[in-house]
Amino acid sequence: MGRLPNKLKQNPRLVQHVMSDGRASLALDFYLGRTEAPVYDDDGNPVLYTKGAMKGKPKYTVRHQRRREALNLYIWVAPRTAQERQQNKSTLQLAEKIRFEREQEMLEDRKGYRLKKEKESNFLRYFEQHRDNEAFTISVRKSYKYSYIRFTEYLAENPIYSKYATILPMDAITPDMVMGFTNYLRKKCTGEGPRKNYHWFKKVIADAVEEELMRKNPCKGIRIVYDTNVMLKEILSPKEIRKLASFRYEGEHREVQRAFIFCCHTGMRYCDVSELTFANIDTDGMVMRFTQKKSAGRSAHAAVVTPLNDELLKLIGTPKGDDPAKEKIFILPHKGTARKHLARWVKLTGITKHITWHCARHSFAVNLLNAGANIKTVSALLGHASIKMTEKYLHVVDALKQKAINSLGKTNFDTEDDKD
């Protein structure tokens, strides 16, 4: 009898349909994945399980997607002669060859009917997949995490959208909802927070549109715009930096303080200063060479050469171990811990500005320009790819100059115009 081998794991799978003339037609059965859709009641609310291990969780309906392709090949169901058995053998070999070719085509996506991933209909769960995707770097996952938190808070706090707090259908996201979210971010976040949170939200939306989970992009035309020439972070003056450097208190973290003051005088980021070793220091040439972590491999200006003076060499110190090339100059805690020590230090010093670690880099640039340094020099010291990136600091310098002039007060000199 002509029978097909039962190979359930093959995709596509060879199947047969018995006909009335004693033969069976051969076909390929393709499995294209499945889709899930939440179940809603008559009022439009998600239906939840009421008992068992799934109690309290939303119900979903599952649909499996399949496709069948006729091969126009036939075998004898009950071959009677050696010729019919040989014909079956040859036909099955040809059918298996076609099946294997189709399998490779699916894997290589040449036919355009690739295996679809399980289609996600709940945007919040899709957002969580981005947040938890280990293929992304820790930094990217954190960015998705904070954006997700802000978006779910927005839904929960908005009386119109609170019903979507657990299940948000892809097509329920409208431009009005997105516009409301951008306004919410402007109220809740400071500095570049609104723009960054919206940036990662838009990436999730764009991925959903690309995967055809959404028909239209609800973010189209909606932006959070800032004047790139406006500095959003506080600046420490040279006087304030000296005040911080000389201030001591109980429970201080001396390494955090030493590294921060060093950054105020070199413009280094936390990610770079925390990895700085004595191999980066040329004491004879009085220079420091390092590659910026942020732009390594992406910019021709990633490598930075910073001149050193006696004060900076004093901050750097000397190696204590047997392998200076691998010895870190600053033994710093996790960035979050360093941030807390910095905030406490600034507060106890009496400085009322909101100072983050990155303020050291901005302060370095502004203070150099204020002292008369050439903008090209400052741009090179910061490792900027173009002077345009450095120009935003010029606006801060101009504002500080205006503030200094205004601080002089009135002249109290009577002019002829005053007498009129």
Description:
The protein has 3 domains: 13-108, no CATH class; 123-210, no CATH class; 238-406, hpI Integrase, Chain A (Orthogonal Bundle), CATH 1.10.443.10. 43% of the residues lie in helices and 12% in strands. The chain contains 14 helices and 6 strands. The strands form 2 sheets. A 3-stranded antiparallel sheet has the order 1-2-3. A 3-stranded antiparallel sheet has the order 4-5-6. Helix 7 (254-266) runs parallel beside helix 11 (358-370), helix 11 packs antiparallel against helix 12 (375-382) and helix 11 packs across helix 13. It starts with 12 loop residues before the first strand and ends with a helix. Mean pLDDT is 86; it is low at 110-117.
Query: What number is the mean pLDDT?
Result: 86
Q: State which percent range the strand residues make up.
A: 5-15%
- At CATH level 3, the topology of the largest domain is hpI Integrase, Chain A
Strand order across the largest sheet: 1-2-3
Q: Which regions contain 5 or more consecutive residues with pLDDT less than 50?
A: 110-117
Number of E-type strands: 6
Q: Give the domain tally.
A: 3
CATH class of the largest domain: Mainly Alpha
Please provide the ordered H/E string of secondary-structure elements. EEEHHHHHHHHEEEHHHHHH
CATH homologous superfamily placement of the largest domain: Intergrase catalytic core
Name the helicity range. Answer: 40-55%
Largest sheet: 3 strands, antiparallel
Using the 3D structure, state the CATH architecture of the largest domain: Orthogonal Bundle
> How large, in whole angstroms, is the Cα Rg?
33 Å
Structural class: alpha+beta
Total DSSP helices: 14
Instruction: State the end-to-end distance.
Output: 120 Å
The 3D shape can be described as elongated
